[in-house]
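Issue 218. Parser rejects a valid record. Input:
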Amino acid sequence: MGNRYTFILLICMILGSSFATENNPLAINTGFKFAESAAKVTRFYPNPATTVINFEFDKTVDKSYTLLICNFLGKRMTETRITESKITVSLDDQYFRGLYIYQLRDQSNRIVESGRFQVVK
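Output the parser choked on:
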């Protein structure tokens, strides 16, 4: 009996997901498009961080990009121009325990990529 319900649920999920394609006129249009390009920040570690955090960037990252780190309330903590494929940010006494947001911004200050990391001290 349980296998029958699992099978029916699986079939409904497969059929339901086929209606949510981009070309379907009945699909909900949110106006949001995912970026076609690959991620520019290839890796950031360690997460959670204690004293430093390292960011590694894709080779295609322009040298005019900046890395902005804000706390979860929006206060700017660090802003660094990308000069190499790897940047180490020191988490000084201004960084308290909590979540932080990083943003990779282009020359016109548009957000290219963003993410979050945690600091534990």
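Fixed in the parser; the record now loads. The helical segments are 2-18.
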